[in-house]
């Protein structure tokens, strides 16, 4: 269902495709199994690659002996760091070698790679490689890593090329990848004015992306030119091109990247080192090489969500006004920085939540440890801080005797107010989301209901959510074909979210063409216009904008030709569904796109082609009275809002939590394809449910204990409630196409606190560490009972 406020920054769409639940363009090939993913591809003479991971979390590399592996029949190439250029890579800090060089920094870090005639031979060759290590003491806790005398993960940290702003605090801590501090108002002076103060420490775990398709790359080297072509499972063909060229010391013109169908990413398929390693194997072997990671290798070698520890204190006045907040965030970025400094920046940026809190002090660290590197993951630092913030908001409401919705509504940011740091809130629709969630969930009645069975307690909880939509640069090209059909070309990668279909709908809506008359061209760095990445809730918002702009330019070209052909001023022309330009008020007149294209191609003007580009403008952090230390200027994006409600049932004996149903209300601006939007909301909620209740990467002495789907627990079909109600509000605004706003990440952000607030409502148990397993809930219940008995 949707509720709409009729306003839009884009021209009115032509035809009726916008806002309709259109079937995915690739639906047939996926449901029939004809879709081609990287691992489905085979080339003549193709070899198979595999990587050897370190058995130690922290050790010096003393020597390699690859003699036996190289001598094995069927082995065509063996690589260690000694055979590769000495180039570190990294999206923020250039701190990561392709294969471990000098020392290993986490258990599972790739130290060697092999290409062989089949995968079994490649794996046997890995076992034949003899590497001698000198064990070093690991540092496994980020707060321990910040203390003087802790083992140093990167002795050369200060020599790395870095985009990270330095600070005295970071300089004083060798294991700090980044440090930042945001202050607004005078927090130290106002605590005495707070009538109620809540303080606690919250912990969120490392979470695995669990994309359906493990990381996979097929590399081919042209024997004459040396140009490398990669077919790869990636979220950005251009980032894969850049990192491969940089790592191998090649010009980008010598690297081509093509994305076939992608089986999910969630942030885990950006900046992947398996791509240049596969390319290096293909160069060394002189043959195509495909490397598809096993699920275990993927979990051991790739990335996770950042584990985070959040120290938070919040104060309010007795009339329910938030007044002050102090936050200390410590993100475990693992052995390499990856996106860690930017994830930490995002966590800090949302530390105030979607509320007016005039006095705030945020201190944030991204810290190196000897664990698997952490990187981008749906929400990008925001789920961690929202968990702490929204649980604490509920506690404050309880102490003030206020309904959780009422307390949030009193403090919700509105249109025209400023975010922490000074950015304007251009479409402050949190109030509308909260009010709709309260009504849809029948909140008042459900808060008062009784347990459904002996030994079970039922509760309902809410979280208010904010995120951003849009980031960095995109471009698009559209070309009118000779027969009046259209080709749309962008560099955006559809990783399963349906963006190819949504972008095609945008083009169709501007030009009035049916979907079958639009050819959407897949991403290929040789021919596609640039797009930064599928991530940051940005594809429909940012790429959709440039598709609309390019189509508007093409429409103007069509009108200029049609004006001559129909002998009518441009301002009197109109587009009609089906690819027709006609005279306004004269339904009998009109000329087809095909006729216009023929005139342009063969008589006057040349091909009808249009290109648009856009970069989301950066917003300096520190305006509006904010003091910012170490905080980069950010392409913060357009603020989007949501409210999420969860109803749970808790077993008093075991602490086991069952999610009964959920309501997820989002202001999507304009739903380009409502079915796809609802699917994103439901999928995001389930992934957030995993973070809340079951998912956690576990280490012992630096070794990952659960690197398999049998031991890492994602929600299964029996765990997911029958009813996850996606509710779409439509308040078109901002730079997105037809006023569309993003929904992909925000759909996950508030799930964990909504569930934990429901657990507290049901039982009184205060859960501060995720996931809220039965054991942790039971411990919280016992702690509550013990505290009550002492009182």
3D structure, described in words:
Residues 32-137 form the Aldehyde oxidase/xanthine dehydrogenase a/b hammerhead domain. This is Aldehyde oxidase and xanthine dehydrogenase. Its cofactor is Mo-molybdopterin cytosine dinucleotide. Keywords: Membrane, Transmembrane. Residues 1-20 are annotated as: Disordered. A hairpin with a 5-residue loop joins strand 18 and strand 19 (486-490). This protein folds into 3 domains: 2-35 and 471-615, Aldehyde Oxidoreductase, domain 4 (2-Layer Sandwich), CATH 3.30.365; 38-137 and 214-262 and 269-301, Aldehyde Oxidoreductase, domain 3 (Alpha-Beta Complex); 307-470 and 621-790, Aldehyde Oxidoreductase, domain 4 (2-Layer Sandwich). The protein is an alpha+beta fold. Helix 10 (340-349) packs parallel to helix 11 (382-400). The two termini are 48 Å apart. Helix content is 28%, strand content 25%. A 7-stranded mixed sheet has the order 4-6-2-13-10-11-12, sandwiched between helices. It has a 6-stranded mixed sheet with strand order 9-14-15-16-8-25. A 5-stranded mixed sheet has the order 1-30-27-26-17, with helices on both faces. The longest helix has 28 residues, at 539-566. The mean pLDDT is 94. The radius of gyration is 27 Å and the shape is globular. The protein contains 21 helices and 30 strands.
């Amino acid at each position: 269902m949707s509720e709409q406020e009729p306003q839009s920054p884009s021209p009115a769409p032509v035809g009726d495709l916008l806002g309709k639940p259109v079937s995915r363009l690739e639906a047939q090939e996926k449901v029939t199994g004809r879709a081609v993913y990287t691992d489905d591809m085979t080339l003549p003479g193709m070899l198979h690659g595999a990587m050897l991971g370190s058995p130690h979390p922290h050790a010096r590399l003393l020597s390699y002996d690859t003699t036996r592996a190289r001598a094995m029949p069927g082995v065509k190439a063996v690589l260690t760091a000694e055979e590769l250029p000495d180039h570190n890579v990294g999206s923020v800090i250039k701190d990561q070698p392709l294969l471990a060089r000098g020392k290993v920094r986490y258990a599972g870090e790739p130290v060697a790679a092999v290409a062989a005639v089949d995968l079994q031979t490649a794996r046997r060759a890995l076992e034949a490689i003899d590497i001698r290590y000198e064990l070093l003491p690991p540092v496994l806790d980020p707060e321990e890593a910040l203390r003087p005398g802790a083992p140093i993960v990167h002795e050369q940290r200060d020599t790395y090329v870095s985009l990270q702003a330095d600070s005295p605090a970071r300089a004083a801590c060798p294991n700090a990848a980044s440090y930042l501090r945001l202050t607004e108002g005078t927090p130290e002076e106002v605590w005495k004015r707070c009538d109620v103060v809540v303080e606690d420490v919250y912990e969120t775990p490392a979470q695995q992306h669990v994309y359906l398709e493990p990381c996979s790359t097929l590399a081919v080297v042209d024997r004459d030119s040396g140009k490398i072509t990669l077919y790869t499972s990636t979220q950005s063909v251009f980032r894969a091109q850049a990192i491969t060229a940089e790592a191998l010391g090649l010009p980008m013109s010598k690297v081509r990247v093509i994305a076939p169908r992608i089986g999910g990413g969630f942030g885990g398929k950006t900046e992947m080192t398996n791509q240049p390693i596969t390319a290096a194997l293909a160069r060394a072997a002189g043959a195509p090489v495909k490397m598809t990671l096993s699920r275990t290798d993927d979990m051991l070698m790739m990335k996770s969500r950042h584990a985070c520890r959040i120290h938070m204190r919040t104060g309010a006045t007795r009339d329910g006004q938030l007044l002050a907040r102090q936050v200390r965030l410590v993100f475990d970025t693992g052995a390499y920085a990856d996106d860690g400094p930017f994830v930490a920046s995002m966590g800090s940026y949302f530390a105030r939540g979607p509320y007016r809190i005039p006095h705030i002090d945020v201190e944030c660290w991204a810290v190196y440890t000897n664990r698997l590197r952490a990187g981008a993951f749906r929400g990008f630092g925001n789920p961690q801080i929202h968990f702490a913030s929204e649980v604490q908001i509920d506690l404050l409401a309880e102490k003030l005797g206020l309904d959780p919705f009422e307390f949030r509504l009193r403090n919700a940011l509105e249109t025209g107010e400023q975010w922490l740091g000074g950015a304007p809130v251009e479409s402050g629709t949190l109030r509308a989301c909260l009010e709709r969630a309260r009504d849809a969930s029948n909140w008042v009645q459900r808060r008062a209901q009784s347990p459904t069975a002996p030994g079970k307690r039922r509760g309902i909880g809410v979280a208010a959510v904010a995120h951003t939509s849009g980031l960095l640069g995109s471009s698009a090209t559209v070309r009118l074909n000779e027969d009046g059909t259209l080709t749309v070309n962008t560099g955006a990668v559809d990783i399963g979210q349906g963006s190819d279909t949504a972008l095609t709908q945008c083009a169709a809506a501007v030009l009035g063409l049916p979907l079958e008359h639009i050819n959407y061209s897949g991403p290929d760095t040789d021919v596609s216009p640039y797009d930064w990445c599928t991530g940051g809730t940005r594809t429909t918002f940012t790429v959709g904008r440039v598709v609309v702009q390019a189509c508007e330019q093409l429409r103007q070209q069509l009108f200029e030709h049609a004006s001559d052909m129909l002998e009518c001023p441009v301002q009197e022309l109109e587009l009609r569904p089906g690819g027709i330009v006609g005279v306004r008020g004269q339904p009998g007149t009109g000329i087809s796109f095909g006729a216009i294209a023929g005139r342009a191609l063969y008589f006057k003007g040349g091909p009808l082609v249009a290109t648009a580009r856009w970069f989301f403008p950066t917003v300096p952090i520190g305006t509006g009275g904010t003091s910012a230390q170490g905080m980069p200027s950010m392409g913060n994006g357009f603020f989007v809002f949501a409210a999420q409600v969860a109803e749970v049932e808790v077993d008093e004996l075991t602490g086991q939590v069952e999610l009964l149903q959920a309501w997820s209300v989002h202001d999507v601006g304009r739903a380009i394809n409502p079915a796809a939007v609802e699917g994103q909301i439901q999928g995001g909620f389930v992934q957030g449910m995993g973070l809340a209740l079951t998912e956690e990467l576990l280490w012992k002495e630096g070794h990952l204990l659960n690197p398999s789907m049998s031991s890492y627990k994602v929600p299964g079909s029996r765990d997911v409630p029958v009813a996850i109600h996606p509710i779409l509000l439509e308040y078109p605004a901002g730079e997105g196409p037809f006023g569309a706003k993003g929904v992909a990440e925000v759909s996950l952000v508030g799930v964990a606190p909504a569930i934990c607030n429901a657990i507290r409502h049901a039982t009184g148990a205060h859960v501060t560490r995720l996931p809220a397993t039965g054991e942790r809930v039971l411990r919280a219940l016992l702690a509550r009972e013990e505290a009550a008995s002492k009182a």
